[in-house]
Write a structure and sequence with these properties.
The complex is a heterodimer of chains A (254) and B (304).
Chain A lengths: L5 E10 L2 E11 L4 E5 L6 H8 L7 E6 L2 E2 L2 E4 L2 E4 L2 H9 L1 E4 L11 H11 L5 H14 L15 H13 L5 E5 L7 H16 L3 E5 L3 H6 L3 E6 L2 E6 L1 H6 L4 H10 L1
Parallel strand pairs in A: 3-10, 3-11, 8-9, 9-10
Antiparallel strand pairs in A: 1-2, 1-4, 4-5, 6-7, 11-12
Chain B lengths: L1 H6 L10 H23 L5 H8 L2 H32 L4 H16 L2 H9 L1 H4 L2 E5 L6 E6 H4 L2 H26 L3 H9 L4 H31 L11 H12 L2 H30 L9 H6 L13
Antiparallel strand pairs in B: 1-2
Helix pairs in contact in B: 3-13, 4-5, 4-9, 4-11, 4-12, 5-9, 6-9, 9-11, 10-11, 11-13, 12-13
Classes of the chains: A alpha/beta (254), B mainly alpha (304).
């Protein structure tokens, strides 16, 4: 069996007195699309943020592409990685945020070129050409010179996805990518994500879009209260949830 | 029913406001009287003003004022950025050092600080490079030779300005959405890159307007170095009127230059603010609006 692209093992995370993650384990194979659903406060977003170490885990391990994230293991102990290694690890993990977080002082094109220029040290000309290609790919070639404030939410999120792609990530994390969008703009973002999945991108998607989870996801995870309650083939979990809490949640979102 | 609305003619008559006219007339009359008094007053020697406006000593003082302002603002801003970053760091010692600095230099009068720097030799007669805590010195200077009035003025103004600027910069950095920092970190940017490429450029929008005010204020604050014979515009004006007793005329000469400098600075401020408002004024960049089709990347048709 090949090594999974992302392996999360018994991860715990606590904010003060609050146990946000109570030992979560999850594997995502290369080219896999895992959708994570669950009520707000269940720890879905925190789990994603632990994977690229925007949050530091309190216990457990996370490997991405075979590399232990955030720590170095030596003599049975975990030592935090120096910042330089952390930056390198983050560069190969893309993250798309609920509220886009495009850089407002840069055009769409500059937003996408920012990572390649600053982090990958790509010559500016080459980075801009790459950015233009990626904007084209998400259907926004004609918006390259617009600032984020001049774009709709759906367009901003597509630029944000292109900005991630410019880093050529091994895996992409989506933190409720369509939750801040007007209903009529959701589909254009989902279409781009579907295209990514078809091209073989490894993805972890925290979402409330059950149809996306069913049609595009390979694996569905239901989280509640800091733990994975149920997981399996999306179609089966959605059609016949085994657990009472899953049933209650799915009953509400439908 | 809409046709009914269209048939009704509407004539809007501007309301008459006699109070407004009266107030304007009073103000205009007052200004006219003031101008008349000033121009004809036998005590305001306009001929002396004109004779001294471009006096070479005045121009040299003007140059010192400009130099003091530009240099102390430049280093004051850098010091302010450094202090603000220290204040926002997670390192307790750095934070405490930064707080101590702003507390002390905002809490004591600038005049006191200027006089202190001017008399620095009383505390440290020699300045040297070597080991601290009384260790051997590699090289040593007489303080009095180093701290000229200009240097003392520069030190006082810069260090004082840095304390105020740090608060302005801190407010600007805090005004940037934390999500921006996260998005930049998620791309793999280092701490310094996040600050330089993402946080500071956005903080600038908040920092620039008060910094412009600080600059304009600094143009005039430099006049305080006259207490340590700083050779600036006001010092020079004072020297001249101590000779010829034309106090008011020379104060007018100096004021005309101060007004000119602050006016130029205000115009500059306007353009700098516009530059840093990119992405917030609802327009594409001018060059792109003009030459969108001349860019190296051809426009493509949408696919999705």
């Amino acid at each position: 069996m090949t090594e999974p692209m992302v392996r999360i093992a018994s991860v715990r995370k606590r904010f003060g007195a609050l146990d946000v993650l109570k030992g979560v384990s999850l594997s995502v194979p290369e080219r896999g699309v895992v959708c994570v659903v669950g009520p707000s406060g269940s720890g879905k977003s925190t789990l994603l943020r632990c994977v690229n170490r925007l949050e530091t885990i309190d216990a457990g391990r996370i490997w991405v592409d075979g590399e232990l994230i955030g720590f170095r293991e030596q003599d049975g102990r975990l030592h935090p990685l120096p910042p330089r290694d952390l930056y390198r690890q983050r560069a190969k993990i893309g993250m798309v945020f609920q509220r886009f977080h495009l850089f407002p002082h840069r055009t769409a094109l500059e937003n996408v070129a920012e990572g390649p220029v600053t982090v990958r040290r790509m010559p500016r000309r080459q980075a801009l050409a790459l950015a233009a290609d990626l904007l084209d790919r998400v259907g926004l070639a004609d918006r390259s010179h617009h600032y984020p404030a001049q774009l709709s939410g759906g367009q901003q999120q597509r630029v944000a996805i292109a900005r991630c792609l410019a880093m050529e990530p091994k895996v992409m994390l989506f933190d409720e990518p369509t939750s801040a969008l007007d209903p009529e703009l959701v589909q254009e973002v989902l279409a781009v994500m579907r295209d990514l999945a078809e091209r073989g991108m490894t993805m972890i998607v925290v979402t409330h879009e059950m149809s996306f989870a069913r049609d595009v996801g390979d694996h569905l995870v239901f989280m509640d209260d800091g733990a994975i309650v149920e997981q399996g083939v999306p179609r089966e979990v959605l059609a016949a949830p085994r657990h009472e809490r899953t049933r209650a949640f799915l009953g509400q979102v439908r | 029913m809409s046709s009914l609305d269209e048939e009704l003619p509407v004539v809007a008559v501007r309301s008459v406001r006699p109070g407004r006219w009266l107030a304007a007339a009073v103000a205009a009359l007052f200004l006219a009287w003031l101008a008349y008094t000033i121009v004809v007053s036998p005590n305001l020697h306009w001929d002396i003003v004109v004779a001294n406006q471009f006096d070479h000593r005045i121009l040299r003082g003007l140059w010192v004022t400009i130099a003091l302002t530009v240099v102390s603002m430049t280093f004051g801003v850098l010091l302010g950025v450094l202090t603000a970053v220290m204040q926002l760091s997670s390192n307790v010692v750095l934070r405490a050092a930064a707080s101590l600095y702003t507390w002390f230099f905002r809490g004591t009068p600038l005049l006191v600080q200027l006089i202190f720097w001017f008399n620095f030799a009383l505390v440290f007669p020699q300045i040297g490079i070597g080991l601290p805590f009384g260790g051997p010195k590699l090289i040593e200077w007489q303080t009095n030779a180093l701290i000229t009035p200009f240097v003392a003025g520069l030190l006082g103004l810069t260090i004082n300005e840095g304390a105020y600027m740090s608060e302005i910069v801190r407010a600007g950095i805090n005004a940037v959405d934390p999500g921006q920092r996260e998005a930049a970190e998620a791309l793999g940017m280092s701490h310094a890159q996040v600050l330089r490429r993402v946080v500071l450029p956005q903080a600038m929008r908040v920092i620039i307007p008060p910094t412009g005010n600080q600059f304009i204020s600094m143009l005039k604050t430099t006049s305080m170095v006259s207490v340590i014979a700083g050779a600036d515009l006001l010092t020079v004006a004072q020297h001249i009127y101590l000779d010829n007793f034309e106090v008011i005329a020379l104060l007018i000469v100096a004021s005309v230059w101060y007004l000119l400098l602050t006016t130029i600075a205000s115009v500059g401020q306007h353009f700098v603010e516009k530059r840093f408002n990119r992405g917030h004024d609802g327009r594409t960049r001018l060059s792109h609006r003009i030459g969108r089709n001349l860019l190296p990347f051809p426009r493509r048709e949408r696919i999705a």
